[in-house]
Amino acid sequence: MNTPLTVGVVGATGAVGKEIIGCLNKSSLYVDKLRIFGSHRSAGTICDAGKFGGIEVEMFDIEKSRECDVVFLAVSGDFSLQNAKKISDGCDGAVVIDNSSAFRYDNSVPLVIPEINAKCAKSSKLISNPNCTTAIALMALWPLHKMFKLKNIIMSTYQAASGAGEPGMDELQNGTREVVSGLKQVAENKIFVHPLPFNVIPHIDCFQENGYTKEEMKVTWETRKICGLGDDFPVSCTAVRIPTYRAHSESIVVQTELPVDINKARQVLDDAPGVKVVDDITKNMYPMPLTATGQYDVEVGRIRKSLVFGDNGLEFFVAGDQLLRGAALNAVLVAESMARNGSLNAKCANK
Amino acid sequence: MNTPLTVGVVGATGAVGKEIIGCLNKSSLYVDKLRIFGSHRSAGTICDAGKFGGIEVEMFDIEKSRECDVVFLAVSGDFSLQNAKKISDGCDGAVVIDNSSAFRYDNSVPLVIPEINAKCAKSSKLISNPNCTTAIALMALWPLHKMFKLKNIIMSTYQAASGAGEPGMDELQNGTREVVSGLKQVAENKIFVHPLPFNVIPHIDCFQENGYTKEEMKVTWETRKICGLGDDFPVSCTAVRIPTYRAHSESIVVQTELPVDINKARQVLDDAPGVKVVDDITKNMYPMPLTATGQYDVEVGRIRKSLVFGDNGLEFFVAGDQLLRGAALNAVLVAESMARNGSLNAKCANK
Question: What are phi and psi of B166, to 5 degrees?
Fold first, then answer.
């Protein structure tokens, strides 16, 4: 971790970009120089980057971004599709960690949660960061899979406004204010398909031919890819937007090949990195957005035997910060794991 | 339906009681006289009962309530336990329709959703009204069961503040106002176990030994009893309180004995009484609290083949008004069905 790195962030003023800067502030990465790239609108402005000081935003440019050792993309899928490979191509390119869904289903691009498949990132210059819902769920599902061998996964989500970035959080806040002050009966909506304040919207991302949304299919596709479960592994998700700010919750039911011992399940989760077991019903402690917000660890609780699958099933509830584990933190942890195994140092050695 | 009835309501100032008065205003029951009973605090006050005019609240009294043909109890389980049988006992007693959970699991007391098991109410003077979550879910589950034979049910809920009555709704509104106005970082809570504004609480009613809450077990127990499914039928629920006012949503996955044809499933739901299929993803139409609130019908949508159970599985989403189908409306519909089959008329004939 001691090689000095030049780190670039594209999209640092968005919800995820801001959190990437925050995570870099606490990271073990040796950030020698932080460069922030933006559009012509933000170029020239000063971005408060915490311990890195005020940094002038540079107009994004392929060549300039290639000068970095690692570049975090916290921008749209279209931008990533257009630029990610140009930034990372060749031995002189930067390692790119992309937050969008642009390359997640490209077999040549690893999709990485470091606690699960860090090794997949090793020889790649372009790495995809998973969908937030998947990343949060897998922190609990992976250790359970290793111990009890999962047979299928059924999930219903309670997703925060932050999944739609700052504009989503602003729309929830402003709309809620208008409704509770009596200004409006029903809030206006531009970002979400319907008004979100005091409502529930079972629709995130666009609908697919099979009746599932793309958000729901992302959970299926990405779970299979990250955990190496094969293309037929049964995962089903109902993805629902609810009026919370930035932590996603998920109600998860799994059927297992091996019989489940609840105490062993709790223990394996307790031992898992990135997981905090919050499961003391005698003290009314369980995962909630209120407590998971701002935390690196995903809270896991309500752990109990499934009334449907009996000894071979488990039900539980998770809550995780969508912007951290669901985005920025995972991206920075990918970079840290690559720094540890030398994958960020190749270019530095040639400089 | 043409026999004039004296109808009593106990607890008319609560959230459910108010809706019972509202439903009676629109009911086909021939309400000759409406009597409203309350505690010593409300006795003597005038209750606005719509087309029935302003009605003076009478101090509750067993003998006076027995003068009614039918009495709706919208009060606590303790009150019901203490009084329901005293009101209904003997051929001179009133038929009692109880909204609490006091008698739901008593084998001698029918638990009724008229669209499913109206006949169970026929010869009983005391009828239990189901839990709101169960009542809403079963409007969709029962027709699907009749067509495809359900093998198991997995459910995650999105439950509104109204489940905790007016005080619950007030706490959500006041707390939300304090948070969005910047007065407080986190809202205060007295009614809910944790602050509800912008939060999610996976805990409704008290925890049982098996790690499920009583609210979750109510769904299991009541589904089995109402549908006559037997004591081992697998039903599993995760019950979650979210910051909405009065319509519950539910994400439901079922495994079926018979293969599911999605079009047939949609058709059987479309034909089912009390159900409104809201399922046009090309127009972003699906069940939501925003549209289900104030409606008698339960909205059902997001109907799709289960990615876990394949041809023998179905996933869907429902939203129903917790105070109407989940409480008041069901109770009034029970009375209507009893009036139709003559069960409310027995006493009238002897008067």
Answer: -55, -45
Do A199 and B235 count as a contact with CB atoms less than 8 A apart?
no
Q: Do A200 and B249 touch (CB under 8 A)?
A: yes
- Tell me which chain B residues have a C-beta less than 8 angstroms from the C-beta of A212: 304, 307
Residue A193, both tokens: 């398909």
ipTM, interface predicted TM-score of the complex: 0.96
Rg (CA), chain B: 20
Q: What is the tens place of the pLDDT at every residue in A50-68?
A: 999 999 999 999 999 999 9
Its CATH architecture, for the domain A134-322, is 2-Layer Sandwich (3.30)
Report the residue of B180, B185, B205 to disrupt the A interface, i.e. the one with the largest count of A CBs within 10 Å. B180
Domain boundaries, chain B: 5-130+328-350, 134-322
Please check whether residue B42 is in contact with residue B15, taking contact to mean a CB–CB distance below 8 angstroms.
no
Q: B346 falls in which pLDDT band (50, 70, 90)? A: low
Picking from A173, A210, A251, the nearest residue to B304 by CB comes out as A210
CA distance B100 to B241: 19
Chain A residues touching B320 at Cβ < 8 A: none
> Are the folds of B5-130+328-350 and B134-322 the same?
no
Chain A residue numbers with beta carbons less than 8 Å from the beta carbon of B236 are: 253, 306-308, 315
Confidence tier at A37 by pLDDT (50, 70, 90): very high
Rounded CA-CA distance B112/A323 in Å is 46
Q: How much is the pTM?
A: 0.96
Q: How far is B309 from chain A (nearest CA, A)?
A: 8
Class of the CATH domain delimited by B5-130+328-350? alpha beta
